[in-house]
Design a protein that fits this description.
It contains seven helices and seven strands, in the order ββααββαβαβαβαα. It is α/β, with parallel strands linked by helices. The chain has a five-stranded mixed beta barrel with strand order 3-6-5-4-7, surrounded by five helices. Strands 1-2 form a two-stranded antiparallel ribbon. Helix 3 packs across helix 7 (199-219). The relative contact order is 0.23.
Length: 223
Amino acid sequence: MGHAGVYRTGLLNGVRCAALRGRAHLYEGHPAHHATLPVRAMAHLGIRALFVSNAAGAVNRLFAPGDLMLILDHLNLMGRDPLSGEGLDEQLPPPDLEQPYDAGLCDDVRAAALELGIVLREGVYAANLGPSFETPAEIRMAAVLGADAVGMSTVPEVITARAMGVRCFGVSCMTNYGAGISPVPLSHVEVIETTDRIAGTFQSLVLSALARVADRLSREPNG
C-alpha cells in the first residue's frame, strides 16, 4: 500500500547506484524469496552496500511521529525466512547475522545526522507480517522483546543481502505511535501524511549518508 514499484539506475553525486521506490510485501501473498528478488538481482549486479528504509510505528515511548531511527538490529516476527520456501530457485548460505547492520555504515549515518543537525534515534526494528496494524498487547509484547519500532518489511531484504555478502544499513521513519500508546486511532492516512511531512529531512540525511558511505567504500579494498 502506498508503494510505486519503480526501479532506477544511474549516478547519485557521481556514484553509480540502483534505487527501488517501493517494495513487494509478504502480506500481498508473495513468498519471501520472491519478494526479495530485487535485492538478489542487485547483489548479482555487484552492489556492495544496501540502504533500506521504511515507515514504522514507534514502540519506544521516547520516540514520536516524525522521528528518524537508525536501525541497529531487528526482530523477525514474520514467521517467514527469505532463504527458504517452495520453488526457491537459488539456494543461499545462511548468513552470519551477528551484526546485520554494518557498524561502519551506521557511523556514516550518525555523522551525516550530526553535520545536518538532525536528531537521530537508534534502536531495534521488529518486522510483523501485516497487513493489520498491531494490537496494544502486541505492541507491549514487542517492547518486552526489545523492539523500539514495528513495521511490515525490511527484514527479508536484509537477510537476503547479508546472505549474498552485501553490507546493510537503514533508517526507519516513525510515522505513528504503536497501538495503545496514543489515544488517536491508527490509520494508513496518518502514515502517508507523516512521511510527506518529514520527506525533506529524510532526503537530506540519506544523500549526506550515501556520500559518506560511497567515500568509505572507495577507500576500501576493491573500492
